[in-house]
C-alpha cells in the first residue's frame, strides 16, 4: 500500500549532473518531493549532501544545531525535531549513533512517529541491535508507515563520494522505493531480507573488520620490530595471501598510506567507541543465538580497553598505536 501511495514519485527521471551544487537547477529541485533526514554527523552530513546533489529538497534536523549549518547553506530546510521532519516529508532517512538514539528519534515525545503520515517510508541507516529495528518496524506499521533498516559500510570517505554499501532489510516490495534514494548515496544497495537482516549483515561485517584490523596492526608491528620497513612489509602483504582491506586500503601504520586516518593522528574515520559499540552488538547477538565467536570476543575486549585508555574518539585503526603503547609498558 505504501508503495502505491508514493508511486507518483517514480515517474520523475533521475538523470542529473553529479558535479557541484551549482548545477542543481530550480527545475530539478522542484521536480522531486522533499526527503527528511535526521542525524547530520560524520556520516549523515555527506549523505544528505549527496541527496541535495541529486536534486532532492532536504528537510533535516540534528540534536546539535551546529551540525546543520553546512547542509542549510546548501539549501536544506532545518527544523527543530524529528516530528517536524515527519510532518513535512513522507520519505525519511535516519543516521544515528546507537539503539537508544534510534528509539528516541522514532518513538520519543518529539519523535517521527508522533507526526508520521500514512504511507511514509522510513529508512534507518544507523547500526543498531536487529531487535530494535524490528521493534521500530512494528511501531511504524501501527501508524501506517513502512520502516526499513539500511546500515552502511564504507566510512566517511565512501559517504562523501557516494560509494557506500547499503544492506537493506524490510518488505521486498518496498525495496525499489528505498533503492531510489539509497543509490544517490551509495554504489551498492543490497536487499538482505526482512527487517533486521540488514543490521545482521552489518554486524557480521564489522566484527570481521575489527578482527582484520587487529591482525593487520599486530602483523605490521611484529614486522617493524623484526627490522622490516613498514612500506615494504605492506607491499609484500598486499601481493600475498595475507592481503586484506585493513592492509591495502586502510593501513593502520602512520606513513604507509596517504589519505587515511593513520596519516592524520587517527583523526576522522570510524571511531574506536563506535567499533566497540558494534562489537558489543555482535556479542549480544552471538549470545542470543548461542554462536561461538572467540576472536570477536577478544576484539571487543581490546576495543573496550582502548576506549578506557583515551582512544575512544580516535579512528579504530589506532589499535596499532595502542599495541605500541602496550609494548612500551612491558
Automatic annotation (TrEMBL):
GO biological process per UniProt: L-valine catabolic process
One cellular component term from this protein's GO annotations in UniProt: mitochondrion
Enzyme Commission designation: 1.1.1.31
The 3-hydroxyisobutyrate dehydrogenase-like NAD-binding domain, residue ranges: 196-321
GO molecular function terms listed in the Swiss-Prot or TrEMBL record: 3-hydroxyisobutyrate dehydrogenase activity; NAD binding; NADP binding
Cited Gene3D superfamilies: N-(1-d-carboxylethyl)-l-norvaline Dehydrogenase, domain 2, NAD(P)-binding Rossmann-like Domain
Subcellular location: Mitochondrion
Residues forming the catalytic site: 202
Alphabetic keyword roster: Branched-chain amino acid catabolism, Mitochondrion, NAD, Oxidoreductase, Transit peptide
Pathway: Amino-acid degradation; L-valine degradation
Presence of keyword Mitochondrion: yes
Catalytic activity: 3-hydroxy-2-methylpropanoate + NAD(+) = 2-methyl-3-oxopropanoate + NADH + H(+)
UniProt enzyme class: oxidoreductase
PANTHER family reported for this sequence: 3-HYDROXYISOBUTYRATE DEHYDROGENASE, 3-HYDROXYISOBUTYRATE DEHYDROGENASE-RELATED
Entry's family note: Belongs to the HIBADH-related family. 3-hydroxyisobutyrate dehydrogenase subfamily.
The protein's name: 3-hydroxyisobutyrate dehydrogenase
Amino acid at each position: 500500500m505504501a508503495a502505491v501511495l508514493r508511486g507518483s514519485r517514480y515517474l520523475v527521471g533521475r538523470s542529473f549532473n553529479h558535479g557541484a551544487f551549482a548545477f542543481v537547477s530550480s527545475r530539478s529541485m522542484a521536480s522531486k518531493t522533499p526527503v527528511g533526514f535526521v542525524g547530520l554527523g560524520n556520516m549523515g552530513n555527506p549523505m544528505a549532501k549527496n541527496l541535495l546533489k541529486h536534486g532532492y529538497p532536504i528537510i533535516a534536523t540534528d540534536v546539535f544545531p551546529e551540525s546543520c549549518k553546512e547542509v542549510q547553506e546548501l539549501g536544506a530546510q532545518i527544523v527543530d525535531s524529528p516530528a517536524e521532519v515527519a510532518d513535512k516529508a513522507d520519505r525519511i532517512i535516519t543516521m544515528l549513533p546507537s539503539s537508544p538514539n534510534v528509539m528516541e528519534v522514532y518513538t520519543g515525545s518529539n519523535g517521527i512517529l508522533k507526526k508520521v503520515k500514512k504511507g511514509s517510508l522510513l529508512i534507518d541507516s544507523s547500526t543498531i541491535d536487529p531487535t530494535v529495528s524490528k521493534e521500530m518496524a512494528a511501531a511504524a506499521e501501527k501508524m501506517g508507515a513502512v520502516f526499513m533498516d539500511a546500515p552502511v559500510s564504507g566510512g566517511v570517505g565512501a559517504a562523501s563520494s557516494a560509494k557506500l554499501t547499503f544492506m537493506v532489510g524490510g518488505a521486498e516490495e518496498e525495496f525499489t522505493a528505498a533503492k531510489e534514494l539509497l543509490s544517490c548515496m551509495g554504489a551498492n544497495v543490497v536487499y538482505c531480507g526482512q527487517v533486521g537482516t540488514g543490521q545482521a549483515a552489518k554486524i557480521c561485517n564489522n566484527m570481521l573488520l575489527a578482527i582484520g584490523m587487529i591482525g593487520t596492526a599486530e602483523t605490521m608491528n611484529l614486522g617493524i620490530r623484526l627490522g622490516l620497513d613498514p612500506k615494504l612489509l605492506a607491499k609484500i602483504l598486499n601481493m600475498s595471501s595475507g592481503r586484506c582491506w585493513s592492509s591495502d586500503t586502510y593501513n593502520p601504520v602512520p606513513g604507509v598510506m596517504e589519505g587515511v586516518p593513520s596519516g592524520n593522528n587517527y583523526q576522522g574515520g570510524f571511531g574506536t567507541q563506535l567499533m566497540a559499540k558494534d562489537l558489543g552488538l555482535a556479542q549480544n547477538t552471538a549470545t542470543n543465538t548461542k554462536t561461538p565467536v572467540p576472536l570477536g570476543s577478544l576484539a571487543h575486549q581490546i576495543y573496550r580497553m582502548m576506549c578506557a585508555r583515551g582512544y575512544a574518539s580516535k579512528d579504530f585503526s589506532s589499535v596499532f598505536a595502542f599495541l605500541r603503547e602496550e609494548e612500551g609498558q612491558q
